[in-house]
Design goal:
This protein is α+β, with helices and mostly antiparallel strands. It is built from eleven helices and eleven strands. The protein folds into two domains: about 180 residues, Jelly Rolls (Sandwich), CATH 2.60.120; about 100 residues, Orthogonal Bundle (Arc Repressor Mutant, subunit A). The strands form two sheets. The protein has a six-stranded antiparallel sheet, with helices on one face. Strands 1, 4, 6, 7 and 9 form a five-stranded antiparallel sheet that branches. A hairpin with a 3-residue loop joins strand 2 and strand 3. Helix 9 packs across helix 10.
């Protein structure tokens, strides 16, 4: 039986009832290697997750020792199976996460700023929203050993002021382990066509600018393409018009802020640079089917 849930930012409180531990500095690790935390109990431990997709505020690292994890990054499907690792850049939209009961996985979220500038991991996060690597058996074994050390560091209050430094040193070590064979990418990620590159660049620019710019011409200019050609490529490659991608980012952010309880409808409209609350309300209702006020309930 598959479990479906939504990933949350590591900045939120840690879920109860699962094998998770973290630091206030923006580091969380989670695994289900302890079979007592698998199945319904594991899913229950992730009840802190929302029922709608969210943007990852931190870099994410997922290593699947066995089984399968399926999820969507920037509205595009991704599957990670035995002996594979997924690296997900900050700011990406993660949703529809599911795995099988027999899946064993390690999951980390951490601040990208804590990575060593020269690390290949930092370069990978800067290059694409998600990269899937096929690991060698020895890499999986070394990763599991290093992950155990990281958990031990995080669970030792006696380390006091040095705990954060030691923990992030360990994260950098884990990054070095999984990127040793970084040229050996999983099928579908090793070669990127020009059209796929345009899609990736478009989504990256949308991610960076959707709060202030929703006009298609703005993005065509950024990509150095004609509006017609850009729209054609995005639709042919993704099955969706570029305006829909932009709207998805806007609505996602709006839903997140409205459900957080920290923003009023007026404040959300201002954050997303709508001319007024009424205009935002019409935009939201057209996309979601209900008003922002009803969505908050």
């Amino acid at each position: 039986m598959k479990k479906e849930l939504a990933m949350q930012s590591s900045r939120l409180p840690l879920p109860a009832g699962c094998n998770a531990i973290g630091l206030d500095e923006g580091l969380m690790v989670l695994d289900n290697m302890d079979r007592m935390a698998v199945g319904d109990e594991m899913a229950a431990g992730l009840e802190w997750s929302s029922r709608f997709p969210l943007k990852s505020a931190s870099a994410c690292m997922l290593v699947v020792k066995s089984g399968m994890v399926r999820f969507s990054v920037n509205f595009r499907d991704c599957v990670v199976t035995d002996g594979m690792c997924a690296l997900i850049a900050p700011g990406t939209i993660i949703e529809h996460v599911e795995w099988n009961d027999d899946t064993r996985l390690f999951f980390l979220t951490f601040s990208q700023h804590e990575l060593h500038p020269s690390s290949m991991l930092a370069g990978i996060f800067a290059a694409r929203p998600v990269v899937v690597l096929k690991l060698l058996p020895v890499q999986v074994e070394l990763f599991e050993t290093g992950y155990g050390i990281l958990r031990s560091i995080l669970s030792q209050p006696a380390l006091a002021a040095h705990r954060s430094e030691c923990a992030f040193d360990c994260v950098n070590m884990l990054g070095s382990i999984i990127t040793q064979e970084a040229d050996d990418l999983a099928p579908g990620t090793a070669k990127v066509s020009r059209r796929d590159e345009i899609v990736d660049l478009f989504l990256q620019r949308v991610q960076e600018n959707y709060r202030s710019h929703r006009e298609l011409g703005f993005y065509a200019d950024l990509l150095g393409l004609s509006l017609k050609y850009m729209s054609h490529v995005i639709f042919e490659q993704t099955g969706r018009h570029p305006s829909q991608w932009i709207k998805d980012y806007v609505i996602l952010d709006a839903k997140t802020m409205l459900r957080s309880g920290r923003y009023s409808i007026q404040q959300v409209a201002e954050e997303l640079h709508f001319p007024n609350q009424s205009f935002f309300g019409k935009y939201f209702k057209e996309a979601v089917g209900v008003s922002p006020k009803k969505w908050m309930k």
